[in-house]
Structure formats: structure tokens, C-alpha cells
Write a structure and sequence with these properties.
This protein has about 350 residues and is an alpha/beta fold. Helices cover about 50% and strands about 15% of the residues. Helix 9 runs antiparallel to helix 10 and helix 11 runs antiparallel to helix 12. It is globular. It starts with 5 loop residues before the first strand and ends in a 5-residue tail after the last helix.
């Protein structure tokens, strides 16, 4: 098992507040330090911070482009691990994450991707129990060549295609796909997931909470007035759709195309729902498109958006108001923990 060398890529563009804590959490793992490497890649240079990070990390790379894809690609080229781990600059690993993940990769020879569950923490690192997400009760496995739609739907239900800091994968997932990765500026999480699915090996998700996911004011869920909030969401989901379009253009397997097309249809529905000028007929057509495409990749989460879409057809103001109120209520609840 110890012949599996591990590489942890810690990435950021310009945030400095938490990156030292992130790297520190990796440097304090339960396995010997000579069995893994830490590569930090960021879009800024800071002499004092770099001096401190150099005592913890093996390599520090400066990549000025904002693109997460280019940052991870640059770090991957410098890495030598059999298994690659991603860590966003504001998240942390629990102390035995590398040990547990390496054990799973050693036990399952055909695995190419593993997604663990999260522990939500606030700005000060305190666990937010009130907003804990569901986690699988046992390991979920899916294979593009022989897997069932139910297995894939379970992966999507537990958001195995999101949270990059929960992702670890075999080196082969990216080795021949760096050109695709470098075209992606945001939403790197679903790209890694879909490239792993496309590899034809097993994709797994586990319920163990091995990543401390920090929720704070720099995350995408920022409290704002309704119009501004909805516009920010439109931009995010539109850009995510563009990421899926890149994958459709660069991956040839018809089966992976079917899965991506479902995700694209979902993004289209979200954007049409959020836009104030969407015509009812177009929204209804998009709801039907998603319903028909769900035979290839199903998630219970899609029905929430279908119901919201149907409600908007009958009452636009009420539908958008419910969506905004629900999200802002959740954010305000988090704000009571004094980090928003």
C-alpha cells in the first residue's frame, strides 16, 4: 500500500486568509510525510506568506491566470503522485484523510475517483452542525461501462460531481486531458468528475466526512438584494453550462455525452428560471427537455427545479420570491454564526 505516492494540490487565485491553514492541515496527516507531496499553486506572490508556506509545502507555483483549470494543470505537471488530491484554499483535510483514501484505492484496484463527504465549518473553523449535508451510508460505486442509472443517480444525489476539496483520483484521469482542463476557468469540480467517469473505471463516493468545507463571505452564496443575487446566480450557472459545452466538444463517447446533456439541460432550466424575461413557453419546453433527458442521468434534485419552473409559469413573482427567500433564509441562519 505504501507504494502509492500521493500528491495534494492546494489552489487559489488571490485569497490569502485561509491558505496557510489549508496547507497546514495537509502537512499534519497521519501518514509519514515522505509518502506524499504538497504543491501550492496560486495567482499572487507574497514574500512573507511564501516563506511560511515553503516550510510546509514541497513546491509553490505562481500562475497569474484566474483559471482554476490552468492552475491545476500546472501543478499536475509538477506532481509525481499515483493519486491526486485537490484542496481549495479555504478548506481543510481532517488528519487521517490521506490514510483512509489511500487504503480505499489500495483495496479497490479498478477505482479512478473517490468523493468523500464534508464537515461544514465557519470562518473560525467551528463546525456548523445545523447545516450538515446528507452522506452515503455505504460506499457507492458506478462504472460507465456496466453501471446502472440508479448508481449514477446516487452519486449525483450526494453531489459527487461538486466540492473539489472532496475529490481524489488516479493520475490517469488527467494525464491525457490537460488540454481540456486548461480551457476551463470555473466549475472545475464537475469536469474532474466527468473526466473520471469517461475513464471507464469505477467512480466511488463514501460517507466519511474527511474534508472541512469552510462557508464564509467569499463563497458563491453571498447575501445580496434579490435582483443582484439572481443575476450572480445566472452568471455562475451560465458559465457552468459553458464548461459542459467544452466537454461535449472534446469527449467523443456517446454515453458520456448523454450524461453531460442531462447536466446541460439542468443548467438551462436553472438559468431560464432565474431570468426575469423568460417566456412561459420556453420555460415549459425546457422542463419537458429535462424530464425526457433524465432517463440517462437522474437526480431527485432536478425535481426541485422542475417544480419551481412550473410554479414560475403560473406566478413568476411568487416563484422567484420563494427561491430567493429560501436561499437568503439559509444564508441568514449561517450569518448568525458571525462569519457572514
Amino acid at each position: 500500500m505504501t507504494d502509492l505516492f500521493l500528491s495534494v494540490i492546494v489552489y487559489t487565485y488571490n485569497r490569502k486568509d485561509y491558505i496557510e491553514k489549508a496547507v497546514l492541515s495537509v502537512s499534519r496527516q497521519t501518514i509519514p510525510r515522505n509518502q506524499y507531496e504538497i504543491i501550492v499553486v496560486k495567482g499572487f506572490e507574497d514574500t512573507q506568506l511564501d516563506n511560511r508556506l515553503s516550510k510546509l509545502a514541497d513546491k509553490i507555483l505562481f500562475v497569474p491566470e484566474k483559471s482554476h483549470g490552468k492552475k491545476i494543470s500546472a501543478a499536475f505537471k509538477e506532481s509525481k503522485g499515483n493519486i491526486i488530491f485537490l484542496l481549495d484554499d479555504d478548506d481543510e483535510f481532517v488528519p487521517d484523510k490521506l490514510e483512509k483514501v489511500r487504503q480505499i484505492f489500495a483495496n479497490y484496484s479498478n477505482i479512478s475517483f473517490l468523493h468523500n463527504s464534508i464537515i461544514k465549518i465557519d470562518d473560525n473553523g467551528i463546525v456548523i452542525h445545523e447545516h450538515e449535508e446528507d452522506a452515503p451510508k455505504s460506499i457507492i460505486r458506478y462504472n460507465l461501462n456496466r453501471g446502472s442509472d440508479l448508481e449514477l443517480s446516487h452519486l449525483l444525489k450526494y453531489r459527487a460531481n461538486w466540492y473539489g476539496s472532496c475529490m481524489s483520483f488516479s493520475r490517469s484521469v488527467l494525464e491525457n486531458s490537460l488540454d481540456i482542463l486548461e480551457k476551463v476557468n470555473q466549475s472545475i469540480d464537475p469536469v474532474i468528475f466527468l473526466l473520471a467517469v469517461n475513464s471507464g473505471k469505477d467512480i466511488c463516493a463514501i460517507g466519511e466526512r474527511l474534508t472541512r468545507y469552510r462557508v464564509h463571505e467569499s463563497t458563491t452564496n453571498i447575501i445580496a438584494a434579490q435582483t443582484e443575487y439572481l443575476n450572480n446566480k445566472i452568471k455562475f450557472y451560465s458559465r457552468t453550462k459553458e464548461v459542459y459545452d467544452i466537454l461535449l466538444q472534446n469527449l467523443s463517447d456517446e454515453r458520456i455525452h448523454k450524461i453531460i446533456n442531462v447536466l446541460v439541460s439542468h443548467m438551462n432550466l436553472i438559468v431560464l428560471f432565474l431570468r426575469s424575461d423568460t417566456k412561459r413557453s420556453k420555460l415549459l419546453a425546457q422542463i419537458m427537455d429535462l424530464l425526457l433527458s433524465m432517463k440517462d442521468a437522474f437526480s431527485i434534485y432536478y425535481f426541485t427545479w422542475i417544480m419551481l419552473g412550473l410554479l414560475k409559469i403560473f406566478n413568476k413573482r411568487l416563484a422567484l420570491g420563494i427561491y430567493y427567500a429560501y436561499n437568503i433564509r439559509s444564508l441568514n441562519a449561517l450569518a448568525n454564526t458571525n462569519f457572514l
